[in-house]
Amino acid sequence: MIRFEPLAAQGADAIDALLDTAFGPERRGRTAYAIRRGMAWMTDLSFASFSTENGAMTGLLQSWPIALHGPDGVQTPLVMVGPVAVLPGQQGSGEGRALMDRLVEEAARVTDEPLMMIGDPGYYQRFWGFTAEGTGQWQAPGPFEAHRLLARLSRPGGHPLPHAGMLGPRPVVSA
Ligand SMILES: CC(C)(COP(=O)(O)OP(=O)(O)OC[C@H]1O[C@@H](n2cnc3c(N)ncnc32)[C@H](O)[C@@H]1OP(=O)(O)O)[C@@H](O)C(=O)NCCC(=O)NCCS
User: Fold this and answer.
1) Distance between CA atoms of 133 and 126, rounded to whole angstroms?
2) Which domain holds residue 66?
């Protein structure tokens, strides 16, 4: 039985420790981190999961507000999904799927913005239909493998995928 809580209910140290265990401390050098640099994760689309009885967090998923900065100066908001992380001892028992199911369901409820991520198509395309088909002309501020740059609409009829541009943080609009 997997239980969820908002990730915001977890401490920053616990989140960092889980991510270090799943990805290693060099994770901060990844292109995904450069894309969302300076952004705060989205509290309504970030979750903690618990699959053991001892009360410790065993998995988490974060989502980030980013944008595709088009050549014409137009900035299209996107939701960047990830990291998705499950502790090694708990992997392979459906916790990652449960986290992603939760994200996809919640995103369809709260946003029109397309979802994107850098991840394995063997996982994210197979279960949730993320695909690199529409991202061929997207660029990023660091190296990435084109077949792993994935996107999907948040829901049918949601904002369409932007065509071309550079991924980066979403500019903050002051009131
Ligand atoms: C990737 C990760 C989140 C998946 O979570 P998980 O709970 O281990 O996976 P699940 O139990 O939900 O897997 C369900 C299925 O997907 C498959 N799968 C898991 N990870 C996969 C991957 N990276 N690529 C392809 N298939 C994968 C499993 O083999 C399983 O297949 P089956 O149903 O045919 O047996 C987890 O393994 C993890 O944290 N890995 C280290 C960090 C990482 O690489 N995160 C992803 C990048 S953001």
Assistant:
1) 14
2) 3-169
